[in-house]
Amino acid sequence: MAHGDDARRAPVDGLIAVVDIGSNSIRLVVFDARGRALWPMFNEKVLCGLGRELAVTGALDPDGVALALTNLVRFTRVAEAMGVGRIDLLATAAVRIASDGAAFVAEVERVTGHKVRILDGETEARLSALGVLAGFPGAEGVMGDLGGGSLELVELKDGGTGRGTTLPLGPFQLMAISGTSSGAMRKEVDRQLEAAGWLEAVKSDEANGTFYPVGGAWRTLARIHIAQSNYPLHVVHGYTISRRDVDVLIQVISRLSQRSLARIQGVTRRRLETLPAAAVVLSRVLRRLGCKQVSFSAFGLREGHVYDSLSSARQVEDPLLAAAADIATREARFGPMGDALYDWVAPITNGASKSLRRLQRVSCLLSDIAWREHPDYRASQAVQRVLYYPFSGVTHADRVFLAYASYIRYGGGQRAKEVQPYLRLLPEDMVEAAWILGLAQRLAYRVSGATRSLLERCRLTYDKGDLCLYLPGDGSAPGGEAVERRLSNLADALGARYRMVEAGDPARAGAASRGVGS
Question: Which of 139, 147, 289, 398 could covalently link to 394 via disulfide, CB atoms 3.0 to 4.6 Å apart?
Fold first, then answer.
């Protein structure tokens, strides 16, 4: 039995609710899909354990069914109250293989009034892989989505998806077969992975060096590693560690009691029962693939489902640039000026690599993100907002670059104590580039009053160690000590001399030009 498997639906452009009915949890996420960024507007999860006894009884867990039905009614009513235009209910492995799966779906449809789409294993794997590509455009390696009942593995190559397989290696299934013995679990996982012959071919391919874990249990493992290693940025998406780090993590988990694990933020009591099995599966998959590193993904099946519903034109957009442009439109005081600012600072950013120019553009789009905050706290608030925004298409180092540039733009001190822990995630040359960019933005906002029209009447040049600021001669842009101080700070960062010239006023131009820094 399957509902909605016949074809991809019409492209979405607005609010879409995705209800993921999984083997361990059910989750509602409401996305704003009017652009490539896929903003999560609402997110709620309930751990029901539908597939807890599936391997033993062949049926869904009765208590889990009751809990799921209650919350699925709530989820759909909440989405309706939000005015969501489209509500998609997706059921995965547990419902797909349970003897009473069809009866459960019929009851869900009766009490909610919405159709349920039961995903076959191939579709579930494909959508999860698309979710990773939505969060990591151009990802190369292998995606693994671990649910309560199954493990989906899909090759990511050449900007798309390749070979894939679905295996009954979800924690509930694995524990039902192997008990709680880690040795028995390892043998079972190895046996099942052996059947997926293409994994051996991937192992010999140097391009496939990254494994992208998806799923709540594996995200919990990432949170544990972040906590145990005192990593400064508590963001799972894009958190990247080596295979050796994973081995250490698994050893840590084996030594910690459930009480100790439960004290770690983000580790729920219901999640604790699946963690040992999830850790074993991750370690054996990495051993089979030979992957050198792991990059955790907060994007998976739900995001992949929405991404699959976007138009082709939307899918190829840069999600980070799209998100920044959307923020700029909503946050700017007197209209977006990010693109004009990017052009204005170009004289001091010429020669940057393509990847750095991308970050510089994004930073300019985000440059007015904290204007509503109290002046004394704008720099600090800008750092926190940028670091923890639900961006995709961004590494942790990218986040730090953008946050540090915003911090400097709002007057934060160079390498101040509150940003120092994050700067260790950024190469030294990128720290300097973010600092210079922030100083240039700070100068631009001083002379323009946060307006594009005034900014475009001013001009910044930088040539052969000479930095010059040209101001209009009609008094519309301020000169004086405050502007000269910001110009001097930028010149010092560049190791340059500076001049400030006001058009049509030779006397002021001459006076300003005497302030030469080095």
Answer: 398
pLDDT at 63 over 90: yes
Q: Residue 22 is which amino acid?
A: G
Residues 358, 437, single domain; the answer is yes
Beta bridge partners of 18: 29, 88
Q: What is the pLDDT of residue 479?
A: 78
CA distances from 283 to 231, 292, 476 (A): 21, 12, 63
What letter would DSSP give residue 500? E
Give the structural domain span for 377: 345-442
- Residue 492 covered by a domain: no
Q: How far is CA 123 from CA 281, 304, 369, in A?
A: 22, 11, 39
Q: Of 411, 442, 473, at which residue does a domain stop? A: 442
Residue 320 lies in a domain: no
Quickly list H helices, 233-309: 243-255, 258-262, 269-272, 275-289, 301-309
Residues 154 and 251 in one domain: yes
237: in domain: yes
Please state the rounded mean pLDDT for residues 135-160. Answer: 92
**Which of 134, 124, 171, 144 is closest to 21 using CA atoms?**
124
**pTM to 2 decimal places:** 0.89
> HEC profile for 49-65?
CCCCCHHHHCCCCHHHH
Backbone angles phi, psi at 462, to 5 degrees: -150, 115
Residues 169 and 293 in one domain: yes
Length of the chain: 518
Give the whole-angstrom CA distance, residue 98 versus residue 55: 9
Contact 28, 79 (CB under 8 A): yes
Backbone angles phi, psi at 211, to 5 degrees: -110, 135
Which residues does 195 contact at the CB level (< 8 Å), separation at least 6?
Answer: 165, 167
